[in-house]
Design brief:
The protein has a five-stranded mixed β-sheet with strand order 1-2-3-4-5, sandwiched between helices. It is built from five helices and five strands. It has one domain: Gcn5-related N-acetyltransferase (GNAT) (Aminopeptidase, 3-Layer(aba) Sandwich). By secondary structure, the protein is an alpha+beta fold. 35% of the residues lie in helices and 25% in strands.
Length: 163
């Protein structure tokens, strides 16, 4: 049966394994730069940046959900679900829905007005699942991102012209 619990520092190696498995599924295994040390500091250090739930099936690690607070100037508090991943051998057992329900309950407890996440356009099973639980696509919005050297250059340009 399904058991969902908050992640602990001892789960960091498992969390990193889930990250690598998800990256493999999303056809981006080379993109993972995360380390156990960073996960430990960012999730369980003095200034936690995320929350994480671990789903187990009969005691075996089956999946996870990692999420963090966001804020909307239009609606107020929200949660962003960064990752929801179920290992292939455990799919179809309701684990994903149970994790999503738990994250939604946490959002409601925190007074959030929305729960949001991203999905790859080719992942039709996930899109169908999200539609089945009331999720909807924001087709008119596009994600913008600055990373790596471009992020460093943008940050450095902030100091230009200052005395």
């Amino acid at each position: 049966m399904i058991h969902i619990r908050p992640a602990t520092p001892a789960d960091v190696p498992l969390m990193l394994a889930f990250i690598h498995e998800l990256a493999e599924f999303e056809r981006e295994p080379h993109s993972v730069k995360m380390t156990e040390e960073q996960l430990l500091e960012d999730g369980f250090g003095n200034d936690p940046q995320y929350d994480c739930l671990i789903a187990e099936w009969d005691g075996a690690p089956a999946g996870w959900a990692l999420f963090f607070p966001i804020y909307s100037t239009w609606r107020g508090r929200g949660l962003h679900l960064e990752d929801l991943f179920i290992r292939p051998q455990f799919r179809g057992r309701g684990i994903g829905k149970a994790l999503l329900r738990r994250v939604a309950a946490i959002a409601a407890e925190k007074g959030c007005t929305k729960l949001q996440w991203e999905v790859l356009d080719w992942n039709q099973p996930a899109i169908d699942f999200y539609h089945s639980i009331g999720g909807f696509m924001l087709n008119e919005w596009r994600i913008m991102r600055v990373t790596g050297d471009a992020l460093a250059a943008l940050a450095a340009s902030e100091t230009e012209g200052k005395v």
